[in-house]
Amino acid sequence: MAQTLIREYAAFLNDDRRRSPHTVRAYVTTAERLVSFLENETGSCSKDAISNISVNDLRVFLASRRGDGIGNRSAARELSALRAFLTYVGTDSATLRRLKAPRAERTVPRPSAPDDIMALGADMAEAASQAWIAARDWAVLLLLYGCGLRISEALSLLGGDLPLGETLRVTGKRGKTRIVPVLPAVRDAVARYTELTPFPAAKEEPLFRGARGGPMKPAAMRSAVLRARRRLGLSERLTPHALRHSFATHLLAGGADLRSLQELLGHASLSSTQIYTSVDAAHLLDVYRSAHPRA
């Protein structure tokens, strides 16, 4: 019964709510943890038992997760996933409102210098085992930094998206589409990859391929960035997703307004974009402290 409910919930998140695969995994994992908790504590994990769970039981469950060592930010994510599952099974909204998320300090992403990003890409290409893999990694890196794409968005591009023009239609979180400009350097990098790859993509097939011809996985890009970053002695903060942060910060520093940046990044809310005003201020403060004679 419980496993059937979990499968139905996963299908609901994926098909009806159009959540990303990462979100589906995270939310389903939380649902499975709650079901296991109820089995151990009450011996019942039917849909009715879950929907009628008490606030005290929920607090005990969340306390057990804190006992596992998760911090405020992770606890807030756990509560968000928990609310989604309980809403799905029909738990009374008044019960859910009594659960308060811990206050998590919002961290400010730190941008990387353009020279560091270019050095990273050059090192990745130099270390690649084959020329087409070098071209692939360089093209993906430029899509992240030059277009502000999430890694999942870059790797979801299909053969039908070729040849790249001056703009690219991107499907992001929750199936939301946006149009992003494509710089000549990005177009050239993708064209170079398509010339060299031994796995030309048909219209409905993934553009970027792994070494054996299957779809390229995000882990492959993360691993290549990690190795290059360590060889160059660059900051541990320089990750594939940090390239998107750098894209946003450098645009803002160059005069882009928040609304335009929100559209380019595909943020549903302007509040998600406003964090970059703090990033830019932090960058300016770093420059001031390093350069001003009285800093």
Main pleated sheet: 2 strands, antiparallel
CATH superfamily of the largest domain: Intergrase catalytic core
From the N-terminal CA to the C-terminal CA, the straight-line distance is: 65 Å
Order of helices and strands: HHHHHHHHHEEHHHHHH
Task: Using the coordinates above, name the CATH class of the largest domain.
Answer: Mainly Alpha
Q: Assign a percent range to the helix content.
A: 55-70%
> How many discrete domains?
2
CATH domain topology of the largest domain: hpI Integrase, Chain A
Work out the strand percent.
Answer: under 5%
Give Rg in angstroms.
22 Å
Low-confidence stretches: none
Number of helices: 15
Shape: elongated
Neighbour order of strands in the largest sheet: 1-2
Q: What's the β-strand tally?
A: 2
What is the CATH architecture assignment of the largest domain?
Orthogonal Bundle
Please characterize this protein's 3D structure.
The protein has 2 domains: 2-97, Orthogonal Bundle (DNA polymerase, domain 1); 114-241, Orthogonal Bundle (hpI Integrase, Chain A), CATH 1.10.443.10. It is built from 15 helices and 2 strands. The protein has helices spanning 2-16, 21-41, 47-51, 55-67, 72-89, 93-97, 114-127, 131-147, 151-155, 184-196, 218-232, 240-253, 258-265, 270-273, 275-291, and strands spanning 167-171, 177-181. The protein has a two-stranded antiparallel sheet with strand order 1-2. Strand 1 (167-171) and strand 2 (177-181) form a beta hairpin. Helix 8 crosses helix 12 and helix 12 crosses helix 15 (275-291). The protein is elongated and about 60 Å long. The chain starts with a helix and ends with a helix. The model has no long low-confidence stretch (mean pLDDT 78).
